[in-house]
Amino acid sequence: MKRLQTIEEARDWFFTVSDSGESLDMDSLEDTESLAFSVGDGGLLNDIGACYFEGKGVKQDQERAVELYQKGTAFGDMTAASNLGFCYYYGNGTKKDLMKAFLTFSKAERLGSLEAEYMLGDMYLKGEIVEKDVATAFCSYQKLYQYLLRYEDNGEEDREYQQLMSAVSKRLARCYHYGWGTMEDKDKAEYLLAKAVFFYRKRLKWGDYYASEGYEEAMGMMGEWREAR
After folding, report:
1. DSSP letters along 136-168, please?
2. Which of 69, 68, 52 is nearest to 60 (CA)?
3. What are the counts of helices (DSSP H) followed by strands (DSSP E) for the chain?
4. Domain 1-123 belongs in CATH node 1.25.40.10
5. CB-CB contact of 42 with 76 (8 Å)
6. Which string of DSSP letters, residue by residue, matches 98-146?
C-alpha cells in the first residue's frame, strides 16, 4: 500500500477504515500517527489511541493507548485528557494513580470535558485525593444534568448524549436515594435510575464498549431498591 504523505490523506484513510470496522494497515497507521504528531493533531492521536484501547482494527494494547492519550493531552485535546484520566483512575494500561487521575481530569475539565466533570465529582464523593465533599459532588452532577436537559429533545439519539446522560443520571439517582449532598428523595432517585437504564440500553444496542458495566450496576441498584421498599 502507498505510504501516506499528508495529514489530509492520513485523516481520510484512518476515518474511512476505522469506521468500516476493517483491520488497520500498520504501515498506514504508523504514517498517520507520525503525521498527526508533526502537526499537533491531538484529536487524531486520541482516536488512534482509542482503537488500541478497544482493540478496534488492531490488536488490543492499552499501554500503547496510554502513550497516545498522553501525546494527545500534550497537544491540548480534551478527549485525550479525559481518556488518560480514566486510565490513571482505573489502572488501565498503566499503574493506577489517583493523583495523576485527579490532575488529568482537572485539565480535561478546563478544556471542556463533561466526562471529566462527573469523574471529579466521583473523587469528591469518595474523598479520593481530595477531602470528601458530597455537596460538591452533588453540585457537579446536578450542574451537568441540567446542562444535558437543555438538549434532551434533540439529543436522545446522539451517542455522546446517551453516554453522558446514562452516567450522570445514575450518579444523581444515588445521591437522591441516600441523601448525599441533597435532601433524600427516593421517588426522584428511582426516576433518575430508570432514565439511566433507558440510555444504557440505547448504548448497548450500538455496541458501546463501555456500557455493559454501567448497565449492570444500574440494574443491580434498581433491584436492591425495589427489594428494600
Report:
1. HHHHHHHHHHHHHHTTHHHHTT-HHHHHHHHHH
2. 52
3. 12, 0
4. yes
5. yes
6. HHHHHHHHHHHHHHT-HHHHHHHHHHHHHTSSSPP-HHHHHHHHHHHHH
Residue type, 64: R
- Total residues found in the chain within this entry: 229
Model's pTM, two decimal places? 0.89
- Number of Cβ within 10 Å of residue 97's Cβ equals 15
Give the domain ranges of the chain. 1-123, 133-229
Is residue 29 within 8 A of residue 59, CB to CB? The reply is no
**What is the C-alpha to C-alpha distance for residues 27 and 8, in angstroms, rounded to an integer?**
16
Residue 107 to residue 103: CA distance in whole angstroms = 6
- Residue 50 C-alpha cell reads as 482509542
Phi, psi (rounded to 5 degrees) for 69: -65, -40
Element housing 174 (H / E): helix 159-178
Q: What is the pLDDT of residues 6-59, one digit of tens each?
A: 999 999 999 999 888 889 999 999 999 999 999 999 999 999 999 999 999 999
Give 56's DSSP letter: S
pLDDT for 58-71, tens place per residue? 999 999 999 999 99
Spatial separation of the C-alpha atoms in residues 169 and 162, rounded to whole Å: 10
